[in-house]
Amino acid sequence: MTNEQAITDITSDFYAALNILFIGDAQPMKNVWSHADDISYMGPDGLYLIGWGKIEAMWNEVAAMKLGGRVLPKQLHTVIGGDLALITCVESGENVVDGEAEEVGIRSSTVFRNEGGAWKVIAHQTDLLRYM
């Protein structure tokens, strides 16, 4: 498999995992992330986390929120080099908070690293969402 196809696949897996997270299951999201100590997260909740232990705990908390809805990448741009790849996009869709649909339209960047032949998320950063 080419790196281009591998990044297309892991990007698809990441957004599938995000949407499964919204119904309360964090495991697919945990599967797409590296479990290393040097990874980082700066998401729509304003958190800045370093290391798998903190990021895993955050994914468990987000899953428990059961935000519902669906978010997909739009205007996707990919850069691949060696063992690192970057995607930038606009995450577009909606979540459901207190029974009300909340629009999602935020800029996002995600960095992947090839770890022993498997591409994994090592950094994710987005704009803030007011309801997070």
The biggest sheet, with number of strands, parallel, antiparallel or mixed sense and barrel status, is: 6 strands, mixed
Number of individual domains: 1
Write down the overall mean pLDDT. 96
| Topology order in helix (H) and strand (E) letters | HHEEHEEEE
Distance between the termini: 38 Å
CATH architecture: Roll
**Strand content range:** 35-45%
Strand order of the largest sheet: 2-1-6-5-4-3
Radius of gyration in whole Å, from Cα?
A: 14 Å
Instruction: Report the top-level CATH class.
Output: Alpha Beta
Can you tell me about this structure?
This protein has 132 residues and is an alpha+beta fold. The protein contains 3 helices and 6 strands; from the N terminus they run ααββαββββ. The protein has helices at residues 3-21, 27-32, 52-65, and strands spanning 40-42, 49-50, 70-81, 84-97, 100-115, 118-126. It is globular. The model has no long low-confidence stretch (mean pLDDT 96).
Concise overview:
This protein is α+β, with helices and mostly antiparallel strands.
Strand and helix map with partners:
Blueprint: H1 3-21, H2 27-32, E1 40-42, E2 49-50, H3 52-65, E3 70-81, E4 84-97, E5 100-115, E6 118-126
Parallel strand pairs: 1-6
Antiparallel strand pairs: 1-2, 3-4, 4-5, 5-6
List keywords for this structure.
132 residues, 30% helix, Nuclear Transport Factor 2, Chain: A, alpha+beta
